[in-house]
Amino acid sequence: MSKKRVLSGIQPSGKLHIGNLVGALQNWVKIQDDYECYYFIADWHALTSQYSDTSQIKESVKDVLVNCLAAGLDPEKVTIFQQSRVLEHAELHLLLSMITPLGWLERVPSFKEKQLEVKDKDLNTYGFLGYPLLQSADIMMYRAHYVPVGVDQVPHLEITREIARRFNNFYGEVFPEPDALLTQFPKVPGVDGRKMSKTYGNCIYLSDSPQEVEQKIRTMTTDPQRIKRTDKGDPELSPVFQLHKIFSSNDEQVEVAEGCRTAGIGCIDCKKVLIKNLMTVLEPIWERRLELLNHPDRLEEIISAGSQKAKEAASITMSQVRKSIGLFNLM
Questions:
Q1: Comparing 59-63, 108-112, 178-182, which segment has the lowest mean pLDDT?
Q2: Taking the model in full, what pTM does it have?
């Protein structure tokens, strides 16, 4: 391979929001010329928590695909595919489950954290416990050299490295140990000040209309110290200012921060600047979204072609895996 291979995915657990845009999609677009990129829609992963109601997964898969393309991913440069269309992922997941100690899965931080966080679903299933193993199978299937992650996510990648190492020790060198491709994932606050999350219902979605985006920004939580227009505030306490750090220029950030500290501007004025800058980012995405949604056949062509290309790469890997383990036809 002339380029190093990158693997990353998005779970179709609902509509994508601006947190997904700045946390993943923009970085995917940025690196698509420098690496051989495989980006997938992780619909099997969605089943780990949505197994009792799958009615929205199909529409969520479509939303992820549309937003990936609208954000600037070029299917001529990258492989975009749907996880469930490449059945080899399930086979590798099964084979890896035979060699993975149970304790490795139980110690993954997100296992206990999400069990405590998610109260309305029963997550005491093997599918949820085995989520990191399926994730490892996704990465190892394409023998990825790098996985884009933030610094706080590096420990989650370590289990994949351990599983690859254990497989290679048992059966011979088949898989590289993937490294983290460290990227900056800014924390994106939701309209209520907490981390933007579909779980909290505090998102600005890429599919929102301009009117919905403006309304959500106008009603956002700000610095609680600024009760009246004349009250001085601390911009660092305002979720609106955290969005300014992502979407506004340095000069604008300085201006609104000073205006907040001195009560030189009100919260509405601060929000108007953010609305303008956010619209500048979203308008071309909205335009491309509309064009894509008007051509559903093109969407199917892209995901089918990408899934076929991914399947061909996966078939090569699984042929070597079966041979290494000793699973092959007698004749």
A1: 108-112
A2: 0.92
Catalytic-labelled residue, pool 4, 198, 272, 311 = 198
**Nearest-CA neighbor of 167 among 328, 321, 11, 2?**
321
Which one of the listed residues 4, 114, 309, 311 is annotated catalytic?
Answer: 114
What's the fold here for domain 210-290? Tyrosyl-Transfer RNA Synthetase (1.10.240)
pLDDT band at 275 (very low <50, low <70, confident <90, very high): very high
Q: Is 114 a catalytic residue?
A: yes
Q: Compute the distance between CA of residue 85 and CA of residue 169 in angstroms, rounded to an integer.
A: 30
Residue 115, exposed/middle/buried by CB under 10 A (0-12, 13-18, 19+)?
Answer: middle
Catalytically annotated residue among 121, 195, 272, 309: 195
Residue located via tokens 């601060």: 270
Q: DSSP alpha helices (H): ranges in 179-262? A: 210-218, 239-247, 250-262
On the question of pLDDT at 109 being above 80, the answer is no
Q: Each residue of 190-215: pLDDT tens digit?
A: 999 999 998 889 999 999 999 999 99
Known catalytic membership, residue 198: yes
Looking at domain 5-188+296-325, which of 3.40.430.10, 3.40.50.300, 3.40.50.620, 3.40.50.720 is its CATH number? 3.40.50.620
